[in-house]
TrEMBL record:
It is found in: Cell membrane. It holds the Pfam family CstA. This is Carbon starvation protein A. It comes from the Bacteria.
Length: 486
């Protein structure tokens, strides 16, 4: 219990200290944001800090900070270390920089930012990665809540019918202006999320749940390789490239740059706390063998149901499960919305007319429906690798921006290098990748990481000499909208 409580306290301290430092390094400005300079009534709509923060949290906190930590609980208390350090020094930095750099560049999505700061080749690479990730996320976040609802209703409603309802909601949320559905319903969804997290976390503390403490003996679980698997299994609660696809949605609705730390860094810390709660619940209620059996029998959805009903009883457990169901739904809808926006930006297709939005969105949903037929565990493995690979690219974009700005780029580059090593090792060793022996995978990952980091420095020095513009020119907007003198 002490390790669990101290970990949550450290996350809060990290927001108050390192979060402020990251904000100071970046340096927010008092300049008009894309919500005003590119206002279109669809995607560019000014909204206040509370609403943006809540939407950002619901966008990024899908099943990742619940399902990932539940599976990560198999590693024991060492998972707490990754959640704390990852959220503070990697995830928070990643989310803040992608959000703020997007604000400086007309709300641009990651592929456009990668093209600007890492070269046109990377723009095409990141487009593929981002769309792959988003379609996988959207599909996973259809299947997961559908399974939870199906279990909650004891199979009385057909799973196919539940899937159709979720897809119908996703289509509306993808096509309609952001303030029509997402802006209106997310406050209600947010209440369920908060109640769910407080209920499970409070239950763990009040009932004195036997949460294992971190010791030298369990720092490295027997027969379970921590690197790289732990760092891909637990992603959304510590570091997630999916967030880089979501932050630009809110960068287009943020009123002032000074609100960025609360919206981007702060909500990553909040997600880390959610991940801590579910990892602790998985460790305290189930032994490693029992947890493995439940995961094999019905996946993380079954574990969620067991935890909720055990900790809170039938009624409270149902409310908690509903809160968990809301999480993936409120990330799946924005996953498809982000994919639509990325494709629209890439092919320069205006989104003011709904027919143009439909032209992009419908093929994505057809592909996603086909992917729901694939086993969840297989989808999750591909999602985990694509997710963390996207995070690496986003961190290198952030490091490049800070390098050109002559600011402390190491805050982004160090976690970027670490995760590049982890993701490369994984794909070289995994069965879904090259299936090489682990020692060969380590060597290949080291060579790849050193080579790509060297390429980064060469490109960064060239970019600094070229004086690539770091932000959108808004002088014409300021001339047309002068600030009245007081």
């Amino acid at each position: 219990m002490i390790t669990f409580i101290v970990s949550i306290i450290l996350l809060v301290i990290g927001y108050l200290t390192y979060g402020k430092y990251v904000e100071r390094v970046f340096g927010p400005k008092d300049r008009p944001t894309p919500a005003y300079t590119s206002s279109d009534g669809v995607d560019y709509v000014p909204m206040d800090t509370k609403k943006n923060s809540l939407i950002q949290l619901l966008n990024i906190a899908g099943v990742g900070p619940i399902f990932g930590p539940i599976m990560g609980a198999l590693y024991g208390p060492v998972a707490f270390i990754w959640i704390v350090l990852g959220a503070i020094f990697a995830g928070g930095v990643h989310d803040y920089l992608t959000g703020m750099i997007s604000i400086r560049n007309r709300g641009a999505h990651l592929p456009e930012l990668a093209g600007k700061f890492l070269g046109n080749v990377m723009k095409h690479v990141v487009n593929v990665f981002s769309l792959l990730l988003l379609v996988l996320v959207g599909t996973v976040f259809v299947s997961a809540p559908a399974d939870l609802l199906y279990n909650l209703m004891d199979g009385k409603v057909a799973l196919t019918f539940i899937l159709v309802l979720i897809f119908a909601y996703y289509i509306l949320a993808t096509l309609l202006p952001i303030d029509k559905i997402i802006g209106r319903f997310y406050p209600v969804f947010g209440m369920l999320l908060v109640i769910s997290a407080i209920g499970i976390g409070g239950g763990l503390i009040l009932k004195g749940a036997p949460i294992p403490e971190l010791t030298l003996q369990n720092l490295h679980p027997d027969n379970i390789p921590i690197f790289p698997l732990l760092f891909l299994t637990i992603s959304c609660g510590a570091l997630s490239g999916f967030h880089a696809t979501q932050s630009p949605i809110i960068s287009r609705t943020t009123e002032k740059e000074g609100q960025g730390r609360k919206i981007f860094y702060g909500m990553m810390i909040a997600e880390g706390i959610i991940a801590m709660i579910w990892a602790a619940a998985g460790m305290s209620l189930f032994s490693g063998d029992k947890l493995n059996e439940l995961l094999a029998a019905g996946g993380p959805a079954v574990v969620v149901s067991e935890v909720a009903t055990t900790m809170l009883g039938a009624v409270g457990g149902t409310i908690a499960i509903l809160g968990v169901i809301i999480l993936p739904i409120t990330s799946g809808d924005t996953a498809f919305r982000s994919a639509r926006m990325i494709i629209a930006d890439y092919f320069k297709i205006g989104q003011a007319k709904i027919s143009k939005r439909l032209m992009i969105a419908l093929p994505m949903f057809v592909i996603s429906i086909a992917l729901t037929q694939i086993d969840f565990n297989i989808l999750w493995r591909y999602f985990s690798w694509a997710n963390q690979s996207t995070a690496v690219i986003a961190l290198y974009v952030g490091a490049m921006y800070l390098f050109i700005s002559r600011k402390n780029y190491w805050i982004a580059l160090i976690p970027g290098i670490f995760m590049l090593m982890a993701t490369t090792t994984y794909i070289l060793n995994a069965k879904i990748g090259f299936n090489l022996p682990m020692n060969i995978s380590y060597i290949g990952a080291v060579i790849t990481t050193i080579t790509l980091t060297a390429v980064f420095f060469v490109g960064a020095k060239q970019a600094r000499q070229k004086e690539i513009p770091l932000e959108e020119d808004i002088s014409q907007y300021e001339k047309a909208h002068p600030v009245p003198e007081v």
